[in-house]
Amino acid sequence: MRAGQGVSKLGLMVMLGLWGCINCDIKPSPIGAYAHGDIVIGILGSVHSKVNDLQGRIRPEMFTCTDFDLIPFVQSLAAIHTIEMINDSGFLPGIRLGYAMCDPCVHATQALHCVEHMLSVNGTLPVLSDYSDFRSPVKVFLGERYSELSIPMARLLSIYMIPQISCTSSAPALSDKLRCPSFFRVIPSDVYQTKALAKLMARFSWDWVGVVSLDDDYGKAALENFLLDAEKEHVCAAFQEVVPHYLDNKYTKQRIKEVADHIRSSTAKVVLLILRPEHVEMLFEEMIKTNTSLTWIASDAWSATRNLMKIKNINKVGDIFGFTFVTGKIPGFEDYLQNLRPGRGARNDFIDEYKQMRFNCSPDPLEANDDYLLHAVDVTEAYSQRVAVYAVAHAIKKLLQCNDTACSGDTNLRPWKLVEILHELNFTLDSQTFFFNQFGDFENGYDFIMWKKEGDERVPEVVGKFLIKNGDVEIYDQKILWTNSSVPFSRCSPSCPPGSVKNISNVACCYTCTICNEGTYTDKWDQPTCQKCPNNTWSEKNSTECKQRTVLFLKWNDPYPIALMVGAAIGVLLLLISLILYVWHKRTPVIKKSGFEMSCLMKLGLLISFGSIIAFIGRPNIHLCRAQQIMYGLGFTLCVCCILIKSFCTFLAFLAFDIDKQHKLRKLYKPTLIIILVNAGQGLICAFWLIFASPDIDLPSTQSMFINLMCAEGSIIGFAVMHAYIAVLAFVCFLLAFKSRKVPQDFNETGIIIFSMLIHLFVWLCFIPIYITKNEQRPIVQASAILVSNYGIIFCHFIPKCYQVLWEKTENSLSAIRQRLFAAVKASVPS
User: Fold this and answer.
1) Do 678 and 725 share a domain, yes or no?
2) Closest CA to 782 of 769, 767, 794
3) In which region does residue 746 sit, left (phi positive, over 0), alpha (psi from -120 to 50) or beta (all else)?
4) In this structure, what CATH number is given to the domain that contains residue 231?
5) Would the pTM count as exceeding 0.70?
6) CA separation (Å) from 152 to 46, 114, 149, 157, 327?
7) Which of 107, 277, 524, 740 could disulfide-link to 302, CB 3.0 to 4.6 Å?
8) How would you label 516-532 residue by residue, b for 16+ Cβ within 10 Å and e otherwise?
9) Can you give the pLDDT at residue 588?
């Protein structure tokens, strides 16, 4: 992704304090460095980063290049040094490698001019119909540094199939072997770097980032690939700004200021810069003016640029991270830089220019040396130049069939033959194995670096890595010291904690947090949807887990079941006491008039009905569910049936003055038969109910943490008919009693029948809506209704009779006592 790493000529002067050389006369030359050899390697390195007056260019005249850039200068020196070391080592016995270097000045047209000049024969670039036998003066090219320049170079060289090996151009387009069949690079494609950038942002949960890129081919491709990779990692671009890649563009500085304003106003706190160092320097200066501190992510184009690390007040801009290509140490290179001079028989105008700038245009600059380059540039970044030159040397060695003593092949080789060899090449250098993949790329990976503070400057430190084979970013967390002691926050929306989900808006990374409803949950941060609770579990709102539901039923130790049991027990006790009194005083007029046998049957029915209440308590099962309904239905039917007989008897007495009607109805008065038939009718209803849709356990799908375990009616028709049957009997009793209310007092039980039946009908009339609407309270409501109905019978029919029996007995006893006392008193009085 190299977009440029430069130190301007003026900037270098300021650093060195050498203002006197600003007007040094440096005249451009097509070939700036040259050394003769049996096989010549072309080197293209943009030692100058600007071309003057591009916008006013109207004639095909030579370009005027300015702004000496130390980094490509050192990289070109690394390639030259490696070539000289190979020559001195005898790696290619009997063969001497030469080089020719041209400066494209970061301009594609000038790069093509360099290639044209290097390929020319006798000052002319031959035009042939078949280039398979074309033997160009330069057999292989190293460079260019920038993808913007490497792309047109690769298209031109593909005509001749002359291999081109770049150490820094990483645009994905260069992997297209249909368009760039002879292009190779000793670095990965930007396809992987953008993946690494997206993985990095996802690793730190930065899903809302700004992106600033160049408008050239490299910048456009890098931006497009990053956006695709970011989408896969759920990272969104808060803004996308583009700046001109030509530094001498008159709108560049103005555009940088506009971008700076946009960055300040954005909510994104992390910004990816796919720029050249010169653009970054201008942008950082704008940020420093307003003390704007953010987290910056550097593309490999400027991630290790030393002069940026030394910008005044660089520590004010915030944390800076980036990816760099894998670096290394070049044996003997540091000594070479400290004793810098062209090799024997070689020419290097770039060394001359550097020394004139460095040593203030002194009369003997070529003899002057120092270690300045070792401090101004990270020389380990030039390691890829060593790898590229050795790749060429290994390919030549194989093509020329070299052994330990000689090479038998023709040095005037056809360049295209090297292309096939490079595709198959696999060589070892410095204990590492290198090879090109099918796209002509290396697939090693990147180092992840952080610019750590060191006084007023920054220094790079490796704090992680991205290996292409693993496809993930490995972070050395213990090495990262954040500016604010914690990972910076850069998200469009705050994280949604467990128990909530993201409610996505129009932008994928912008959302609101919505809590999970009952029955759903999330147990992780930033989940897209709530998960449903599995069977037999439930959750409240905003839950992070599902819990086993609490099963609710009328437990024996709960207050209301205790009240029901006490009520039923008291009712049974009252029945037993009244039964004892009825048996003990069955010959009394009161008991005889009320009908001893019928009263006993009524008590039996109520006793069974009270038993049904006990069936409502405890964990329901199918047997209890059946018992609840059948016991009440049969028991209370028996009780009401006996009351019906009493009502009928009273009604016959009422018809005493209508002998004919009384005589007809008296034929129907057969108590035993009535009891059997009426109860048999209820028995049939219950039988059909049990057979076709029996009451059973109800497992409701309630939307709560609690399962109200209760009995279901089975067939609502059976349930309704059973209760309606009793209600009809009660209503008939009520009508007969009401009709007979004027019967003489000695036979009159109409009042208690009317009142008891009204109680029953009223209770069950109220039961219907309550039973329907209060689903969870059905057992309590029905048990209470049964209890009230039973007590209505007891207090209307039995308690008054017991009271009368006891009162009559008491009156008789008192009367006997009074008579005996009166007789005793009378006997004691003298006659």
Assistant:
1) yes
2) 767
3) alpha
4) 3.40.50.2300
5) no
6) 15, 12, 6, 9, 27
7) 277
8) bebbbbbeeebbeebbe
9) 78
